[in-house]
Amino acid sequence: MSEPELHYFCKPTGERPVARVVEFLTMPEFIADEPACKTLWELVSTQFRTRGKFLAVWAGVRFVAVHRDIDGTADGFLLVNAPINWQIDYVVVAASARGQGVASALVTETLNQAYLRGVPYVMLTSKESLRPLYEGCGFVAVEEEPTPNPLPAGRGLSASPVRAR
Ligand SMILES: CC(C)(COP(=O)(O)OP(=O)(O)OC[C@H]1O[C@@H](n2cnc3c(N)ncnc32)[C@H](O)[C@@H]1OP(=O)(O)O)[C@@H](O)C(=O)NCCC(=O)NCCS
């Protein structure tokens, strides 16, 4: 069974320190960097099962947060869909760069950019096990209300309990 996912939101209220340098690029700036595009595609292809979903998300991406190693090679990415509120998708860091605060820096820089641009809310959906990462950056998990008790037999239209959100 796949791991449950949680929805998170954050209302940016100020700038926070970012432990690593992160570039916050518009889409034209990002696609001008072909090696970085290639690395992003390699990471998405190997770290996520849903390449079709990636292509659907890609169509709406407006910003890409990028971290680079000391040689300038991109090794961490995060995509931002930005109609009005922002949605973070596909936070991914190369295996060799993990455990050093890269994802945390990508997310924190994105929240700072949202604050500076007056974005009301930032949202994301992620595996439950990454809750410490996102809560550490200032996100709050949207808790689902407990499943209500099913109605007594004959009182409901459906046999399945409806999940309140
Ligand atoms: C998840 C991922 C982005 C984390 O990147 P990272 O740069 O190693 O993360 P950070 O070093 O910034 O971690 C910051 C904190 O997040 C938490 N965290 C990071 N990776 C975690 C993991 N795999 N499981 C649980 N918590 C994790 C820890 O609390 C960590 O703090 P600590 O190092 O003091 O313990 C990276 O492992 C990755 O690319 N995984 C594959 C793709 C993926 O699952 N992306 C998430 C999609 S929502």
Short structural summary:
The chain is α+β, with helices and mostly antiparallel strands and 165 residues long.
Describe the protein in words.
The protein has 5 helices and 7 strands; from the N terminus they run E-E-H-H-H-E-E-E-H-E-H-E. The protein starts with a strand and ends in a 24-residue tail after the last strand. The protein is globular, with a radius of gyration of 18 Å. It has a single domain, classed as Aminopeptidase (3-Layer(aba) Sandwich). A 7-stranded mixed β-sheet has the order 2-3-4-5-6-1-7, with helices on both faces. The longest helix is centred in the middle third of the chain and has 15 residues, at 102-116. It has 165 residues and is of the alpha+beta class. The chain binds coenzyme A.
Provide keyphrases for this structure.
single chain; 165 residues; alpha+beta; Aminopeptidase; seven-stranded mixed beta sheet; 5 helices; 7 strands; globular; disordered C terminus; binds coenzyme A
